[in-house]
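Onboarding guide, step 5: your first structure request.
Type a short instruction followed by the sequence, for example:

Predict the 3D structure of this protein.
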Amino acid sequence: MQYEQRDAFTVLTRKVAEKFEQTMEIEQKLSRLTDQSSALTSLVIMRKCMLAMWEGDLVGKETRSSNRLLPMKALEGPTEEFYKTWLHLFPTGACNRKLYVSGLGGIQIALAYTVYLLSKDYKLTHRGAIQKLAILKSVCSWQHDDPLFTHLYDPTTRRIKNHGKKSALQETARQFITMIKREGNL
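The system replies with structure tokens like these:
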């Protein structure tokens, strides 16, 4: 991720991450974040978020090319807006994975996939879909036992599990959309 020049999404990820250096901690070298990490996200997760948001790709393999017709420069503004939304959407201390799910890659990717689904199924622009995410701030505590995450919650450990599986990402995005529809006007 640090040196890749051939993949446009990787290059865009680094460019966007550079703009957020002062406002959020982004892990530059490791692909996985532990509970002890103070970073909110990593370059790898950010790239997966972009693939989910722009292509609907939850595997992270860049299998589709529908948006390849758009120049990467056109994706930069809405992508930055998506990450700015995190700063308002997530609670203070969002990177504390023991308290909040907002620092978990699966939740972040599901949010990006929610943007993709809102734009695809509800004919919103990506910017319009990103603005709809703001509704989640008032209805979600981002804690492990929040009702939005019951499909992932393990009561024995009191934490969510398997949040990165493709089916879990899809269900989490569906839960987000259901809440947005209930609270907003879709």
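Each response can be followed by summary notes, for example: The CA atoms of residues 12 and 76 lie 7 Å apart.
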